[in-house]
Amino acid sequence: MKYLEEYRNREATEVFLKKISETVTRPWKIMEICGGQTHGLVRNGILELLPQEVQMIHGPGCPVCVTPKSLIDMAVQLMEQGVIMCSFGDMVRVPGTSKSLLQAKADGGDLRILYSPIEAVTVARENPDREVVFFAVGFETTAPANALSVLHAKKEGLTNFSLLVSHVLVPPAMEAILEDEFCAIDAFLGAGHVCAIMGMEAYFPIAERYKVPIVVTGFEPLDLAEGIYMAVKQLEEKRVEVENQYSRVVKREGNTAAIKVIEEVFEISQREWRGIGPIPDSGFRLKEAYADFDAERKFQVRSNTSEQASGCIAGEILKGLKKPHECKFFGKECTPAQPLGAPMVSSEGACAAYYHFSGNLIKN
Amino acid sequence: MNKDHIELGHGSGGLLTRELLDELIFSTFSNEQIDQKHDGAILPMSGHVVMSTDTFVVSPIFFKGGNIGELAVNGSVNDVAMCGGIPRYLSLAFVIEEGLPVADLRKILESIRHAAEKSGVQVVTGDTKVVERGKGDKIFINTTGIGTLHPKAHIAMQRISKGDKIIVNGSLARHGMAIMSEREGLEFESEIVSDTTHLNTTVEALLDRFGNDIHLFRDATRGGVAGVLSEIATDTAKGVFLKEAWLPLEKQVEAACEMLGIDPLYVANEGVFVSVVNGAIAGEYVEALRSMEGNEDAAIIGEVTETKPGMVILESKIGGKRVVTPLIGEQLPRIC
Predict the structure, then answer these.
(1) Which class is domain B8-149?
(2) Which of A174, A191, B1, B127 lies 20 to 30 Å (CA to CA) from residue A347?
(3) Are residues A162 and A202 in the same domain?
(4) B157-323 adopts what CATH topology?
(5) Predicted structure pTM score
């Protein structure tokens, strides 16, 4: 597969791993923002190939993990009211207060797992007498397609289609992490696909204000090794810059057509992050002009649930203060089959990634 | 039959049932046993008998490379073969949802007849039930395979020991990805075709030649190769070491897995089986396999170790290691 095999090449990856070892002189903590990067690091066994000075901290960039329980509860309520709920695959197993979407389906709800929100518009067209709701979770990466689904539905005059929006943004989350008094992160790997959409502009002020190097990085082993090397090199050379490892995909200005679609449909709003709490200006909601497509306003669903203390340390894990295996529930009370918290559900979640790919290695 | 669709009456035991049986079932499978029209079959067998049963609920029922009918034959035939049996007879039971086009049923029966012929088994008894619309999903099929034990077969988990090699007979994940691309309406440059096939002739030839050196056969259906290997590691309390670079994968299957965020190790196969064999004969075994039609992509993918007991460890293409755990629930595609 072109553009994949080249970036999974053992020799090329080893070149950067060797350079990391040769460059590093002292311990550094580097946070990879994106869950896809966490997945890549553990799936390819990169963590154990890094010198012990380089510690990777797994960031909050797993959309499934940060979607608050209250939104899942709303989705469950909507299913119980008889709507067709459409969702991305890994969202369906995340536990809400009483159940997950998959459990709501087992109880008789109509749940469709889709690959694209545009498919949900088709579902709405084919079921004119049913209400169809797409559970629009995700970071900036999924926002253009979600926005486009609203524009498509509007153009077609569909009145039975809406979004349950839980969109979050990367830069405010990074700032929230950096503001934490216990934050010990020396550098970031920026989320490649988020930057492919939004560009890199938002990261320059963050790097400058918090004196933290940011390397926009891809997802394949070679990308990750090179991104980590670039971050270590900056740290060792006492430089603070925003660099772009993923230049084959990311342009500084981003994807302007996609940004235009997002800006047409969404506006910035406060969002609650599971495990972290509310962060101002950290997400999207539908603009007033598209209120008819906002499931929350359309159905008047409300959730009074607040984050209950289950003993889950998801917040500390998402902020990089603890590693998954430092949780006393990890692999015991909390497993992917019986998750206590969201990072154990999605394969991008730090806990699930550890459980699936390296948890047992660590314990032994 | 003068009906175009299956009705509840076809399962009532009355005239419609008689018509369905006579015109579709008995005429398709005519043989010495089934022609008796008994309530069951009386089979001339002696020695150790191998038996296995399986139920098939696949959706869609027609897919690239096959349909639910041949899947149902191959499934039970292969399960008997995996125990070291030579499959001889098959039972065949249908649960049909009211409204199934008779033309579809004919097509499925024809595939069953063809698949049974290819694998050398006779359909000797069966059953047909019809359920109300909405109480099923077009058609469910149960088959039970019965066979005699191959004289040289000695298949048992307990025989697996350190240094045994793990071998697959072909490229992975074709069936599951064919089904998934059909469901998702995905098109690739070259089609992904299900690998559904009968394995008994291959297995019989391997047993003839390598007999006692074969410690285990297991077909990698639901749960994929990862599922089989996890079972081996857990049940033997030995380690299984795999190399990602050695896994045989077709380009388009790899691309489909990549696109849908699915790990091919967990994807269902219908014509892939795992052999665990004495390390000393592994090279010869793979060569023998590769010379058999349909097994050209056979490969050694790993070995049994004493380290990391109970675990499957995979060395990634770049040389890192990770644990391969059994699948939990359904494999779900990732968001981005």
Answers:
(1) alpha beta
(2) A174
(3) no
(4) Phosphoribosyl-aminoimidazole Synthetase; Chain A, domain 2 (3.90.650)
(5) 0.85
